[in-house]
Amino acid sequence: MRDVGVVIVAGGTGTRVGGPELKQLRWVAGKPMLLHSLQTFQKRADVAMVVCVLPARYAGDPPPWIFQCDTERLLISVGGKHRAESVANGLEDLPAECRYVLIHDAARPLVSEGMIGRVVDECRKGHGAVAALPVVDTLKRVDADGRIVDTVDREGLWRAQTPQGFPRELIGRAHREGRAAGVHAAATDDANLCERLGLPVHVVRGSEKALKVTEEGDFARAEAFLPLDE
Question: For residue 218, what are the contacts with CB-CB under 8 A and spacing of at least 6?
Answer without folding.
Answer: 211, 212
